[in-house]
TrEMBL record:
GO molecular function: DNA binding
Annotated ranges, domain Tyr recombinase: 7-85
Keyword terms, alphabetized: DNA recombination
Upper lineage: Bacteria, Pseudomonadati, Pseudomonadota, Alphaproteobacteria, Rickettsiales
Name this protein carries in UniProt: Integrase
Length: 116
């Protein structure tokens, strides 16, 4: 907030993020800045939209429902959110291990362990 308040005091523009080069007069997409950031960080083939996918995957990994992720990404349909969420492989392995333990426990309790 302090940065925005300071900008308001010094800026002659009504816009929060004005741009001298865009047709709209405001920052529309930080393509050139993003390109410089990626070059300095020596990152190849990384788009700003990849950050959106990473964010969606992270909130999914901490337990957010598909609907919650959909709302966070401002998607109208939860189905369009599915491609954004890539679960952490470690979490997938943990769930698979838990499921295996449940299956083994059920098999033992029904004495069918050796028939599987």
């Amino acid at each position: 907030m302090e940065i925005l308040q300071a900008r308001k005091l010094t800026s002659k523009s009504k816009l929060v993020l004005p741009s001298a080069t865009s047709e709209s007069g405001h920052l529309a997409h930080p393509n050139s800045a993003w390109k410089i950031i990626c070059e300095k960080a020596r990152i190849k083939n990384f788009r700003i939209h990849d950050l959106r996918r990473t964010f969606a995957s992270c909130i999914g990994d901490v337990g957010a429902s598909q609907r919650t992720i959909s709302i966070a990404l401002n998607h109208i349909s939860p189905e369009s959110t599915i491609s954004y969420t890539i679960p952490c492989l470690k979490l997938v392995q943990e769930y698979m291990s838990k499921a295996t333990q449940i299956i083994k426990g059920c098999a033992r309790s029904y004495n069918i362990y050796n028939t599987i």
